């Protein structure tokens, strides 16, 4: 039996199952607890981790749970090389125990659109045909860089009239849409918050987008990036560990987060605005040159087929290992 878990808080269940059945445990890393706890401040986390050798603090408890889960796992699968290196360095997980399997996407579900249809679709959704749609998709959370994006979009609006920022996603974090609306009150006519949208509506938003933006302060291998790439949307992407494993500098415009003396991640003024303006000013040939890479990016590294093959190989190897091991079930 092979048990797969995607979340550290399943540790008690995994330990129970492992004690009752001859099994192998596969843990998949989609995120890192320390980033949520320390707001992506690696300096503060590292200091806390080093100083906790004699006993873990309550603040570090979720990180310790994560570490224990990976220790008892037979395989740890990371969606990025960045997190593979992290768990090796901080959790001392042996390299041979860790596999990197990036997220994969089913490109058959995603369709591009021509310019004429794009303009018609914009109008049918209540947008002006001539508006340039800058699309953000994901949770509305401060670590996704939302406040920086709103501030920088305000700078863009001073120079461009036919732009609109569309943010598609739920306010599942501590800050709510009302707070983001208050933050951009001088540009309400140019900013649209959709809240949660269904699959079909999301596909329409991808088809009308002129620019996609992912301004995360920290991230891993988000499906949103793969969906935008599959829909041939020119991308502005945060150059953070994990995200920068998807596209090269020729395939997107990178925005570079800075780190202050205390270790907090932020964007300097105009970093995002300059990137948006650059893509708005780019001619058709330059934009096409950027997205020409996209089909091969997905095919060679981030397709559902590749992800399935890699996962199947890992599970098959573990299942064969379990089958050769005498099963001694003890129910307690």
Q: In which order are the strands of the major sheet placed?
A: 7-6-5-8-9-10
CATH topology of the largest domain: Rossmann fold
Q: Return the string of H and E elements.
A: EHEHHHEHEHEHEHEHEHEEEEHHHH
The CATH homologous superfamily of the largest domain is called Glycogen Phosphorylase B
Gross morphology: globular
**Structural class of the secondary elements?**
alpha/beta
How many runs of DSSP E, i.e. beta strands? 12
Report the C-alpha radius of gyration, rounded: 22 Å
Helix content: 40-55%
Number of domains: 2
- Number of helical segments with 4 or more residues: 14
Sheet of most strands: 6 strands, parallel
CATH class of the largest domain: Alpha Beta
Distance between the first and last residues' Cα:
19 Å
Q: How would you describe this protein?
A:
- The structure is a single chain.
- This protein is globular.
- Helix content is 42%, strand content 15%.
- The longest helix has 20 residues.
- The C terminus is likely disordered.
- With 332 residues, it is an alpha/beta fold.
């Amino acid at each position: 039996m092979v048990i797969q878990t995607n979340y550290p808080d399943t540790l008690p269940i995994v330990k129970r199952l492992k004690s009752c059945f001859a099994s192998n445990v596969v843990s998949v890393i989609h995120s890192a607890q320390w980033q949520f706890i320390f707001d992506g401040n690696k300096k503060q986390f590292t200091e806390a981790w080093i100083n906790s050798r004699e006993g873990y603090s309550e603040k570090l408890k979720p990180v310790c749970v994560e570490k224990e889960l990976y220790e008892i796992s037979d395989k740890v699968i990371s969606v990025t090389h960045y997190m593979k290196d992290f768990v090796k360095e901080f959790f001392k997980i042996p390299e041979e125990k860790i596999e990197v399997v990036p997220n994969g996407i089913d490109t058959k579900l995603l369709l591009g659109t021509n310019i004429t249809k794009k303009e018609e679709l914009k109008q049918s959704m209540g947008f002006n045909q001539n508006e340039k749609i800058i699309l953000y998709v994901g949770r509305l959370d401060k670590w996704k860089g939302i406040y920086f994006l709103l501030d920088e979009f305000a700078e863009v609006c001073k120079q461009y009239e036919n732009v609109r920022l569309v943010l598609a996603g739920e306010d599942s974090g501590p800050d709510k849409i009302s707070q983001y609306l208050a933050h951009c009150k001088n540009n309400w006519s140019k900013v649209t918050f959709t809240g949660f949208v269904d699959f079909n509506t999301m596909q329409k938003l991808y088809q009308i987008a002129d620019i996609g933006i992912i301004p995360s302060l920290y991230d891993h291998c988000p499906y949103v990036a793969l969906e935008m790439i599959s829909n041939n949307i020119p991308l502005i992407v945060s150059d953070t560990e994990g995200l920068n494993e998807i596209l090269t500098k020729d395939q997107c415009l990178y925005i570079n987060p800075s780190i202050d003396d205390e270790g907090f991640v932020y964007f300097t003024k105009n970093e995002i605005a300059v990137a948006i303006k650059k893509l708005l000013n780019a001619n058709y040939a330059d934009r096409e040159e950027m997205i020409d890479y996209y089909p091969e990016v997905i095919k060679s590294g981030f397709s559902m087929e590749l992800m399935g093959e890699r996962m199947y190989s890992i599970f098959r190897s573990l299942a064969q290992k379990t089958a050769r091991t005498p099963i001694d079930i003890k129910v307690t």
